[in-house]
Amino acid sequence: MMEEQLLQSSTFIGTANRGYGQQAQEEIIRLFGPPFKFSQLVPNETFRFELPLGKAEATQRLVEQEPMFLRHIQPVDAELDWDGELDSLLEWATSSIKLEAGTLIAVQVRKTEQLATKVSQGEYKQALDLALTKAYATEPVAKGGEFILSLYLTPEKAYIGLSAPEHNLSDWSGGAIRFRKEEGQLSRAKFKLLEAEQVFGLDFSQYKMALDVGAAPGGWTSLLLERGVKVTAIDPAKLDKALLKHPNLTFHQKNASDVKLLADAYELLVCDMSWSPRQMARLIKELLPSLRTGGTAILTVKLMHKKAFQTVRELVGDLSPELSLQKGKQLFHNREELTLFFIKS
Ligand SMILES: C[S@@+](CC[C@H](N)C(=O)[O-])C[C@H]1O[C@@H](n2cnc3c(N)ncnc32)[C@H](O)[C@@H]1O
């Protein structure tokens, strides 16, 4: 009986962008229904939660019906009472799990600011990599492993869990996806589109013609040009000079509602304007005849006064039936906004 009850519950640590933990928790409640136990690890950002389902079933639901604001999950297979000492972690990791020789394993360590220890995250990771290699002859990797051993360290507890990378919603530690800043990069905004490409499983090099609405200074346009796409960029503000010479770029330095576009000209429409969402929806609606049936639209949505769900509902309603929502996600590189991926019907 005891065992049965244990099998029917599972514990995770969830992480959202700072200030959006509440929204992530609301989505989890909608998915699983109460009762629940949430406890905050970092206010409105990182939290521990228990679900009345086994680990595999709970993970499957979280992956298949992925919440927009939940950036990352790690399972909690063990909660060690600890004192910041490395030895207790090493002991657990080398005695409580079973790993086959040659398994590629990535160790990801996060710790709260309150954990006053001189050992850095990197040092914990290094020590665990070594210990696992010695105990099981596994192979430590930074990314692309078969498993991730996640550790979340607070002054009182070490939360530890083993999972396949695809079960964590993101294979980056805490979902904090990092891109290298390139020399001469035009805007930080470029990271948003790079992240959207990964998170929505797209490959921009497969598109021939794209429309970038609100393109200046040109981060998104530059990424699409790098992928070999022909881009029509629209913005009353200036695009970076370096882009203007590009043979695959057409630039209209105008307000988007003043530009005449050919029907069915584009397979991809992207828009990163920091406008009120419903105003943006009206503008996008006017431009939609230029997007082919089956085409993709990626839109950044500014979250007004944190009424996130209402904002998304209204916007999706405004854009239907032409656009149908495939996935919405608050990306790591989104600030007070989230990103939506649509297909034109
Ligand atoms: C956040 S920036 C876009 C950054 C861009 N994605 C990048 O990667 O560099 C928003 C842009 O929307 C533009 N914008 C605002 N209203 C617009 C309109 N009616 N038509 C076209 N662009 C507009 C602004 O001029 C501004 O350059």
From TrEMBL:
Pfam families: FtsJ
Keyword field: Methyltransferase, Transferase
Keyword Kinase: no
InterPro entries in the record: RNA_MeTrfase_FtsJ_dom, SAM-dependent_MTases_sf
Domain Ribosomal RNA methyltransferase FtsJ: 187-275
GO biological process, one term: methylation
Protein name: Methyltransferase domain-containing protein
Molecular function per GO: methyltransferase activity
Keyword Transferase: yes
